[in-house]
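User: I'll paste a sequence; please echo it back and then give the predicted structure.

Assistant: Echoing your sequence first, then the prediction.
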Amino acid sequence: MESPSGSSIYVGELMHHRFKPKKHRFSYRVASWLLDLDAIDALDKQLTLFSVNRFNLVSFYPRDHGDGSDTPLREQINQLLHHHHIETPDKVSLLCYPRMFGYTFNPLAVYFCYRDQKLTAIVYEVSNTFKERHSYVAAVEPGEQPDDRRLIECDKQAVQQTIQQPIQQPIQQQADKALHVSPFFPMDCYYHFRIRPPGERVTLGINLNNSNGKLFTAVFKGLRKTITDRFIVKQTMLLPLQTLKVMAAIHWEALRLWLKGISIYTHTPRNFFFSHSRAHAPMAKENDFAPFASIKSKEAECFPQNNTANREKNL
């Protein structure tokens, strides 16, 4: 059976490119799931090979995201947006890696928040291998809200698309780095996000910059596929144990970087699991991820009740 409207799979390539102090590049195929948080239970009922909160070939556990608590994920996002003075959405879609054979790891999961069919906010949820997580919360400026119909027509090269109707520019946002992720990058950096929201295609681009320029770029480009049991089987055959591959790639590439003699930055464990901070529109748009001066935002804020001890209870 097919998935309900709003949920889909994006199959494509994830590319990592390190620029300094030594160049290093790799890429691999991945499949990201876009899940309508209000339709996940319906997805569970309609698909045989997908389940919510129970083991299956592919499964989704809400506690793998957000603050790791039992609070409904949709409610957590509403609270997070409210904390940063962003209006409550009437639809939230999460782009992530669900569990395959019971395992997942999401270095980055992205929430697309809509109100009145307009994209109003994006939440970038970053997790590290030290069981810590940080969300960067960004409002989408009115001038950057995409025209979904136009994007779909453009992707399909529809006849109705005219040369006078320009292609929607990517949404660009910026946030100071607030979570240790890689031992090969310092904390005194900032992210620059470039996003083409989900339509027939999706593009996620992230630059890591510091005062010396661009350090690292990651880009995912995916093509939309309808979720069916048949496609889940196909995905499993083409991308077996995807999340294990992601984790293995992280450690393998880290070993290669270490062998190249790149300096290591020590991680200082923190006494809480989840934190969040505000992202914002950059002072200047980037056409090719060119570096520009960082803008310091206020320090990351934490949910005091969500500490490491509470996290361990939910694992």
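The chain has one domain: 8-314. The mean pLDDT is 80.
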